[in-house]
Amino acid sequence: MARRLSYSARFTHPAETLYQAQSTRQYWDDMMAGFQMISPHCEVDDFTSDETGLRVVLKQTIGRDQLPALAQTVLMKDMVITREESFGPFDPDNTKGNYNASIPAGPGSLNGWQELFPTETGCTIRKTTEVKVFIPFVNGKLEQLMLVNLVDLFRAEAEYAADWVKKNL
Questions:
Q1: pLDDT per residue as tens digits for the range 112-123
Q2: 81 bridge partner residues
Q3: Which of 111, 114, 102 is nearest to 158 (CA)?
Q4: In the chain, pLDDT over 90 holds for what percent of residues?
Q5: 70-74, 131-135, 138-142, 152-156: lowest mean pLDDT where?
Q6: Residue ranges covered by each domain of the chain
Q7: Are 99 and 127 in contact (CB under 8 A)?
Q8: C-alpha 39: how far from its chain's center?
Q9: Are 87 and 53 in contact (CB under 8 A)?
């Protein structure tokens, strides 16, 4: 059975500013450079931004020895995560997008949708994630572990976004 989680990141700047930041390759390159403190193999694999929206493909390798013990029982080598994020064209009321992550020969799936919308004090990105693990007996524990780690990731990325916008836009 899949598990779902919604996470909202609130920002003090306008939605258009955050969208503008994510529409630049430098934003993503800088983010991957920051991830290299945790995992030395992080890169922007593909990036597109035009009138139809934006799409970025990120690749990150996490050493097996850095994984929680439960994950090490399932994965016998380093974990290579390919993550794709997209947003449609900017809509001042609600910009919608999707994201997913995959691991070659991974034991499950991670998919989600996101929306960027204005608030009275700035804007919010809401991400709703669904994870599913296909391993009997440990699937629920792995799904929960993935969701907990996603919250940490989304929180760190929100802090990064606010800081990047402040310094660059």
A1: 999 999 999 999
A2: 60
A3: 114
A4: 66
A5: 70-74
A6: 3-168
A7: yes
A8: 15
A9: yes
